[in-house]
Specification:
The chain is α+β, with helices and mostly antiparallel strands. The chain has 20 helices and 23 strands.
Length: about 650
Amino acid sequence: MAGKQKKQIYSEQDLRSLFDAAPDATLLVNTDGRIEWLNAQAEKLFGYQREEMLDQPVELLIPQRFQNSHVGHRREFADNLRVRAMGSSLDLCARHKDGSEFPVDVNLSPIHLLGRMVVSASIRDITKLKNAASELADTVEQLRSEKDFSDNLITTQQGIVLVLDSKGRITLVNPYFEDLTGYSADELIGADWFDTFIPEDERPTIQEFFAQVMREGINRGYVNALVTKAGDQRLIQWHSKTMEDADGSIVGVLNTGYDVTEQEAAAAALRAAKKEADRATGIKTRFLAAASHDLRQPLQSMGLYLSVLSQQLQKHKNQDIGIKMRQSLDTMAEILDALLDISKLDSGSIVAEPCEFPLQKLLDQIAADNSPLAAEKGLSLHIEPTPLIVKSDPALLRRIVENFVGNAIRYTESGEVSIVIRSDGDSASIDVSDSGVGIPEDALETIFEEYFQLENPVRDRSKGLGLGLAIVRHIARLLDHKLDVQSVPGQGSTFSVSLPRVGVVSEAATEPVVSDAGTTTDFAATVLIVDDDPAVIDATVMLLKIEGFDVQSALHGDDALAQIEDGLRPDIVVSDYRLPGLDGIEVVRRIRHLVGEDLPTILITGDTSAKDIAAVDLARCTVLHKPVNSERLISLIHESCRSTANPARSH
């Protein structure tokens, strides 16, 4: 009780500093409902000057339609003073001097001050919070949890008011602080703040900080733990302001604070959940990497055996069975590729690696892969040469354009498919147009959804799977490229992807590569096959021997290198990328070093992203994805061997 009898050391100016330090508009209202004091935030919030509000009934700040009922509520509250957070269950409204109304959160705290009871009313404008609530509804669960944390911090004023003198002794507390800590005012006034509330291991640091505040007048926010009477620790976010006497000497510190214990616990839980999610993503990434190789490997050998079988069934009455088996196998491979790609994109396993490159190089690859398909349907594939240099991930951008071109060929029965490049300032657009069936206007957005197909209710796989454009949308988001589609039913469609343009190359560099694939070599080229799957080697050897090639094989890199050291000189190397020990890239490098030339190379991978291979600058190297199309493999071997044909070479 001795502390209560001490002479007050704060003046009217100190009281004003106390309430001006509060983050919200604060009023002191007597039991008759008249305003006795207000802080600067209250003047700003309501638009009145201090003199206009002093000694006025608090109903001045309430919409007229609520004033009569509020008088009754106020009188009931005066008969039973208590800490009250009114905004938690009521939609409260306040009135500005100009007559406008705005939603508020109000917290009432009775304070025994200068021998009588007054009510501290803390008022917060929550207009922005109300408007923000609907915008946050669509965020992901993690962001929703963070929103809940922010909402709690914004809308729930904890109402701690605490004054310490220059020695760190408590001179003023409000009822909320009593409830929070479990101490009564009699126990608190005059108590040493550090000994009573600060955990022992933090005490030296907090005492040093307090001493610095007393010396330098530092006013800033911080968080620290306090120990309640029951021995529990609560985390408090503080806002402090030094108090000065008439001579300008610092005589104490006014502290307002919020209990953030639950919020910090929730944030820690979120961090733990994110760490676990990241761990799970890592496991999924490793699984998908293995699945890409292991699931495609049997499809690779099946496709090669089927090609051999088809060769033997030519002009046989069962030839049609082989054709149907090939169609089924191709569909299975397409489904597997699409599902694995969707999974990788969803899990974040695929990471974009943008670089600057000539766009014509990508268009030449598109032409080589798709011209035979277009010709097979009697279509013309026209690709306009371009000198542009663009910035993107070449492998991922190619996936987008390949899908556009493949769909255009699939859904066009006559006419042409064209690729035109448009340039506008720092942006370039790749436009793929066709003269096909077109797309209804109401389906232009839906076509990018997974498993959506037009006019395919029976799921005819020859019309695709309904996953290609969904993958395109995922990749475009990953690359931050814009997609667009324009279509007229019955006349055709144009699919576009926009990307950054960084410059141009010389005209000579834009000449398209003309491929004469499909012809054969005029000598028995030697092909070295390197693969760790005996079934793949067996089927590949059978297929290539039927085509007239001299074929040698190795089950791993060391075996291949040993054959080279023994005198083998292949015309081309066909290697799997994922090999035991040395990977396919390193095997090719060492073979080239031993033979003293850059042998043509075909690298085969079960990873559709092929990031490791795409990142390596291997000259005269083509990358194919499992399962490999046999006709495509044979065509590439012929083409590569023709470019370095030397029948006099001794093998």
